[in-house]
Write a structure and sequence with these properties.
about 180 residues; alpha+beta
Length: about 180
């Protein structure tokens, strides 16, 4: 696996990415050494590299783009962490819900249409993965565990800046619209 790091900035991502990264459970977990991995990070990468016309909003609340019906499940933001990160401190401060699979604690969020807070159109979930079998020492260990190479994307917070972390092969596969199961 050949990991690359790209600083996420206002010049290379949309406002919605910053909106999610600034959410309290996301920032609190990441400032303690956790990271985002999987679909949300992949959507950010697709947005930055202009693949499949993907945006963060389309990933998190796709039903808005399907005529308003709940035809497709909403995406989520999966946060992974090494065992030494005390995610219980984050969990106890906020209203939470245990995941259906039992491996994460969920924070439900409502996506509001632009500045109109009175008109939410969908919900999405931020998941803090708290099952020990899914906690890894490093983001590289975490991404290496993914059996679909196309999902090997992550986001880390270093020195108050967010970085997209991705396997170069994942980006090439996605650009070529090819799926690779390891």
């Amino acid at each position: 696996m050949n990991l690359k790091y790209l600083k996420i900035s206002k010049s290379n991502c949309d406002n919605d990415t910053g909106r999610i990264l600034s959410k309290k459970p996301v920032y609190a977990a990441m400032s303690d050494g956790s990271w985002i991995a999987g679909g949300f990070a992949r959507a950010v990468a697709h947005s930055i590299f202009n693949i499949n016309n993907m945006t963060v909003k389309k990933y998190l609340v796709p039903n808005k783009y399907k005529g308003g019906e709940d035809r497709e499940p909403c995406g989520d933001v999966d946060i992974f962490s090494p065992a030494h990160v005390e995610i219980d401190k984050i969990i106890h401060k906020m209203k939470t819900l245990k995941s259906y699979g039992g491996f994460a604690t969920n924070f439900e969020n409502v996506w509001f249409e632009d500045n109109d807070r009175s008109c939410p159109f969908s919900k999405y979930t931020i998941q803090l993965v708290d099952d020990q079998k899914y906690r890894y020492d490093t983001i590289e260990d975490c991404l290496s565990s993914f059996d679909i190479r196309n999902a090997r994307y992550g986001i880390v917070l270093k020195e108050n800046s967010y970085y997209l972390v991705y396997d170069d092969a994942s980006l090439i596969l996605d650009k070529n619209k090819t799926l690779d199961i390891v």
